[in-house]
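thread from #wetlab-drylab

HS: before we spend reagent money on co-crystallization trials with 2-phosphoglycolic acid, can we at least see a predicted complex? here's what I'd submit
DV: go for it
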Amino acid sequence: MRKFIIGGNWKMNRGTPQAAKDMLEEFIRLVREINNVDIFIAPPFTSLGGASILLNTNIKIGAQNMYFEDTGAFTGEISAKFLKTLNVEYIILGHSERRNIFKETDEMINKKLKKALEEGLKPVVCIGEHLEEREAGNTKNVIKRQMEGTFKDLKKEQIIRTVIAYEPIWAIGTGRTATPQQADEVHAYIREILEKTYDANTASSIRIQYGGSVKPNNARELFEMENIDGGLVGGASLEAASFAAIIKAATKEK
Ligand code: PGA
């Protein structure tokens, strides 16, 4: 059985150590009894220090991006090695905002992914289609192409340590969630590709999160679907009560 995994992606919000601490103190209280769900929060870099309040709790620290070199003349970038000094365990890679606004390519994300795995970070790799691509009936082609590029040359023991987040771009920050059936259909397709590339065991052990307007009122119906193993949550992870409600929706068995 796959353990549910829920991540909070704060994006460029709650950027001061104090703003992080204010939310996290309350959040720790609300979810401290929950051990059957893996939980992480990825604040902005400037709040990673404030997130150290999470140490020795059931909530782990994530980062939203990294570069694939260790050190050197890469102005504005931060390496996996640096993140580890701040107790970061999870790393979100290839988020659609990184792909679309900052022009990250599958090739770059592939390099970052390999470096993250080499450094022992737990990668959460995002894939997902634009609205026009869905409407043109191209969702599966896009997913296949992104997986081929992003996971290129990844060995079985590497993909097994990777979490995949399916995030249809048209559902991110829009309040327009994919229906549980729409999401599950793509998740099943992702597993089909994993099975073809690796094997059935590998495909059934990899966790696939859904992301895109996950809220307390729709989390349960999404998490009930066979192939959905949790969520990557943006807006609703910024407040302790709403994020805790989403985590609680994952504590029940399917
Ligand atoms: P949202 O963001 O929950 O605000 O739609 C999800 C994400 O971008 O990971």
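DV: Residues 4-249 form a domain with the TIM Barrel fold (CATH 3.20.20.70).
HS: ok that's useful, forwarding to the group
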